[in-house]
Write a structure and sequence with these properties.
With 342 residues, the chain is an alpha/beta fold. It folds into 2 domains: 2-155 and 325-338, 3-Layer(aba) Sandwich (Rossmann fold); 162-320, 3-Layer(aba) Sandwich (Rossmann fold). Helices cover 37% and strands 17% of the residues. The strands form 2 sheets. It has a 7-stranded parallel β-sheet, with helices on both faces. A 6-stranded parallel β-sheet has the order 10-9-8-11-12-13, with helices on both faces. β2 (34-39), α2 and β3 form a beta-alpha-beta unit. The longest helix is centred in the first third of the chain and has 15 residues, at 16-30. The radius of gyration is 20 Å and the shape is globular. The chain starts with a strand and ends with a helix. The relative contact order is 0.13.
């Protein structure tokens, strides 16, 4: 079984599409298959990560999501003998999917917003918490996989299935994480909010490979005696260590949910607001709206309140783990396997 994964990474657009595609590649390989990434854009950190995983990565010389891209990707798929190609990226449109499909490949598309046409997809996947609210047009000959039960988690999370979180009376271990680049430097605001604490706490700050503001947080880190971690390869261990998290409302939320970490989250991009609305409605996370003018005082009040409320954190942790169980990528692969020969 051979799978090709088409996704890109860049300093401007981030690494999220490649990293969630990686979870599917790992699950596919765990089932005995082989996986190959095709990238028109990448970063040094992604190149290194795929090398460490032992996954072949082919760089193509084509504008992302273009016709030239599609035919270059088809060439790679033909060379490796792939039956399936998984496509993840907002630039890819129906013409691209149909070019792949009409060649005989089965196409799985990872989606977030239902803002394209998907008639040539054999599988359309949206694992966001709001996915079942979206009115997708039925596919001509494909299937829809919707909701968090299909959430892909990378291999490093698999061993944490069945782990039980202990909820402390007062949360004293804080994990701050705002993704690979944190363009709004929310890390600094989160750390500033910790200066308001009236009790001792241990703070770990995870900085992504493209974070550009490390110099601006040095003095705060020193005051708080915070631990700074760059490019961690064992993020689940850090989540298990923490009592509470402060995070953006992006793909990291699924990892926090799986690990049951009560957290304050901030939607810092337009495409994060829809999920944040449901997280707030269902009390899955403490959601603090962000419109560009957030002060550290506002953030501090919400963080401290959650740190001091064991009952809220316990209820939040239990609710999270109802949604993400760590088997999502394997469910998707099962669906792909059922469609072999269809």
């Amino acid at each position: 079984m051979r799978l090709v994964l088409r996704a890109d990474a860049s300093h401007l657009r981030g690494t999220g599409h490649v990293m969630r595609s990686l979870a599917f590649a790992q699950a596919w390989m765990a089932r005995g298959g082989t996986a190959t990434f095709v990238l028109a854009e990448t970063t040094d950190s992604i190149t290194r990560r795929l090398e460490l995983e032992g996954i072949d990565a082919v760089r193509i010389d084509a504008p992302p999501a273009s016709s030239k891209d599609a035919y270059a990707t088809l060439g790679v798929a033909k060379d490796v003998g792939a039956e399936w190609i998984m496509v993840d990226g907002y630039n890819f449109q129906e013409e691209y999917f149909c070019t792949l499909s009409h060649s005989g490949l089965k196409v799985a598309v990872i989606d977030d917003h239902n803002d394209r046409r998907y008639n040539c997809a054999s599988i359309l996947l949206n694992y966001n918490i709001y996915a079942n609210e979206i009115k997708y047009t039925p596919l001509h000959s494909g299937v829809l996989l919707l909701g968090p039960r299909y959430t892909p988690l990378r291999r490093e999370y698999w061993r944490w299935r069945g782990w039980t979180r202990v909820i402390e009376p007062v949360a004293r271990k804080v994990l701050v994480t705002f993704g690979g680049s944190d363009p709004h430097n929310m890390t600094q605001k989160a750390l500033e909010s910790m200066l308001e604490l009236d009790f001792p706490a241990s703070i770990a700050v995870v900085l992504g490979p493209n974070y550009q503001y490390e110099a601006s947080i040095q003095s705060i880190v020193k005051k708080l005696r915070a631990k700074v971690i760059r490019n961690t390869t064992d993020f689940p261990k850090l989540i298990s260590w923490a009592d509470i998290g402060i995070s953006a409302s992006g793909t990291t939320t699924f990892e926090l949910m799986f690990m049951g970490l009560p957290s304050v989250i901030l939607p810092i991009a337009e495409n994060q607001t829809q999920a944040a609305r449901i997280y707030k409605q269902q009390s899955i996370f403490e959601v603090l709206e962000y419109a560009g003018g957030l002060t550290y005082n506002e953030l501090s009040k919400r963080v401290v309140s959650l740190m001091k409320s064991a009952d809220r954190r316990r209820a939040m942790s239990l609710r999270m783990r109802e949604y993400v169980d760590g088997l999502g990528a394997f469910r998707v692969i099962d669906a792909m396997d059922k469609r072999r020969g269809v």
